[in-house]
Design a protein that fits this description.
This protein is an alpha/beta fold and 244 residues long. It has one domain: Vaccinia Virus protein VP39 (Rossmann fold, 3-Layer(aba) Sandwich). 36% of the residues lie in helices and 21% in strands. Strand 4, helix 7 and strand 5 form a beta-alpha-beta unit. The protein starts with 6 loop residues before the first helix and ends in a 12-residue tail after the last helix.
Length: 244
Amino acid sequence: MSNPNWVEPKIHALVERYRLPAAAGGQLRALLRLLTEDSAAPTAVHDPARAIDDHFADSLVALDLDPVRSASTIADLGAGAGLPGLPLAIALPGTNVSLVESSARKCEFLERAVFECRLHNTDVVNARAEAWPEGLGRFDLVTARALAPLDVVVEYAAPLLRLGGALVAWRGQREPDAEAAAARAAAEIGLEPASIRTVRPYPEARHRHLHLMFKVMQTPAGYPRRPGIATKRPLGAQRRPSDR
């Protein structure tokens, strides 16, 4: 276990680094208590200092990207324990954040977290991204962390984005094949890769990247496909000539 005396300086450092609102420190502490003490928290990280690094710092590092800072509406897909959605909602109180999660049990935790953190800009959506018609074309930004292969994330995100909106996907070490598959999927569904930013959310972090894509064309007819099809028949898969 970490020294509890390290926790407060770590939170203060995040508030200072990202110029967070006055209420953010208290809200991050409330979220930290839930993540580390609530037995229903859907996370394996229960050490407070490690949670600040792996959960909060890793989420908030996206604030270095202009499309994140400027977003008015965010959909966090596969929200799970609320990461990165909850830290971003705390950091951006003027932004409406939808936490999209298909597990009812995880949604119950997310509802508690929204209440405990006194967030008035956040709603919890118990749905799959592919089966949420109310979200289509609504969002400036879609976020996804540890959700699915990158080409699958691209397909989940595109229908939810408005034209000109952005996808930010958290990934680990660079994978050329996966990135090529994502680029093929993006071309098919109206997104365009913009950059892959190497980030270091905390000093010990290694092999962390944020993939940024923009929606440059309307989503073609037929999307989103039925739930489960994106993983069974990913758009980024190489096709033989006979498959085309």
